Amino acid sequence: MTMEARILARIRKIPRGKVSTYGAIARAAGYPGAARQVVRALHRASDLPWHRVLGAGGEIKLRGEHAFEQRFRLEAEGVTFRGRRVNMGLYEFKFLKRKALRRKKKR
DNA sequence: AGGGTGACGATCA
DNA sequence: ATGATCGCCACCC
C-alpha cells in the first residue's frame, strides 16, 4: 500500500461532525512529520471529506473563498468555531495511533 | 545533484 | 495575535 493510500484511508475515517489535522492524519497513517504529504493527497484525490481537515489548533489553512467554503461546510455539520478556529476539544476525531512505518532507506 | 514547492508545525520576537 | 524562521517530507523539474 502506498503512503498516499494510507493517508487517504485515514481521511475517509473522519466522521461527519468531526475534524482532524494534517499532522494528526500523517501520524495516524504511520508517517509522523509528513503533514505536507497529507496536503498532497488531498490535492490529488477527490470525493473526500476534505473540509474536515484543519491545521494544528483547529485553524483553517485555506485562503479566500475556499476558506469560507470549508467553514460553511463544517458549520453545516454542526462544528462550531471559537474565533478563527474550531473547538478541537469537542470536535477532534481521535485516531488510534499507529507505529511509524519504516521509510525507504537512502542511498 | 541542486533548487523549488506546498491547504504543515513548533518556536520565538 | 502576527509574522519570521527553521525543520520537515515527497515530488518535480
Describe this structure in words.
- The chain has 107 residues and is mainly α.
- The protein has a single domain, classed as Arc Repressor Mutant, subunit A (Orthogonal Bundle).
- It is 42% helix and 7% strand.
- It has helices at 3-13, 22-28, 35-44, 64-76, 88-91, and strands at residues 20-21, 53-54, 81-82, 85-86.
- It has a two-stranded parallel ribbon with strand order 1-2. A two-stranded antiparallel sheet has the order 3-4.
- It is globular, with a radius of gyration of 14 Å.
- The protein starts with a helix and ends in a 16-residue tail after the last helix.
- It binds a DNA duplex (13 and 13 nucleotides) through residues 3, 21-23, 26, 31, 33-40, 42-43, 50, 53-57, 60-63, 66-67, 70, 103.
Strands, count: 4
**Per the principal axes of the C-alpha atoms, what is the gross shape?**
globular
On the 0 to 100 scale, the average pLDDT is 93
Helix-strand topology string? HEHHEHEEH
The CATH architecture name reads Orthogonal Bundle
Strand order of the largest sheet: 1-2
Estimate nothing, just give the exact number of structural domains.
1
Question: Could you state the CATH homologous superfamily?
Answer: Winged helix-like DNA-binding domain superfamily/Winged helix DNA-binding domain
Structural class: mainly alpha
pLDDT < 50 runs, ≥5 residues:
none
- The first-level CATH class is given as Mainly Alpha
Share of helical residues:
40-55%
How much beta, percentage-wise? 5-15%
C-alpha end-to-end distance:
22 Å
The rounded Rg comes to 14 Å
Continuous helix count: 5
CATH third-tier fold name? Arc Repressor Mutant, subunit A
**Sheet with the most strands, sense and barrel status:** 2 strands, parallel
